[in-house]
Amino acid sequence: MRISILSIILVIVGCGSIHTIIKFQKKGLMKLKMKIPEDYIFEGLQGDQEVEHRYWYPDSSVIYITSFENTLNYEDIREQGTYYNRFKSYHNNDTLTLRGISSNGLYWQDKLLKNGVTIGYSKVPKNDLQDFISAIESIEIFN
After folding, report:
1. How far is CA 30 from CA 13, 54, 98, 133, in A?
2. Are 42 and 55 in contact (CB under 8 A)?
């Protein structure tokens, strides 16, 4: 009996999504960490003062953390008609969350944090959406 209950518990625990804790630090801005789904390919970009981390998945969906003014969701934000809101919030050091469904039926979110850092996801199919929402909700910010 004990073996059966233990087996059931192991199966339930084993069926959960596996996550990796990632860290992002932008000197003078903030440090943050969040839990994201595994099986990604990391891509890092850097400009004069900007940094971007992209975590690409096999289906072309992506989680990103960036200090660049425009994000991977730039076209979707423009199409939604909310670009001015984002521009204004970015330059006023305000927070703002935008989300939607792109013309190809994939989900996206762009969450602007204070200090001009944005976290988000793009090109997410509906069946994976909850994992990406959970990743964004798992963020911890350290100043």
Report:
1. 33, 17, 21, 21
2. yes
Q: What is the pTM of this model?
A: 0.81
Rounded Cα distance between 75 and 103, Å, is 10
Structural contact between residues 89 and 82, judged by C-beta atoms closer than 8 angstroms: no
Q: What is the pLDDT of residues 49-87, one digit of tens each?
A: 888 999 999 999 999 999 899 999 999 999 999 999 999
Sign of the torsion angle spanned by Cα atoms 76, 21, 93, 46: negative
Quickly list DSSP for 64-99: EEE-SSS-TTHHHHHHHT-HHHHHHHHHTT--EEEE
- Rounded Cα distance between 89 and 84, Å, is 8
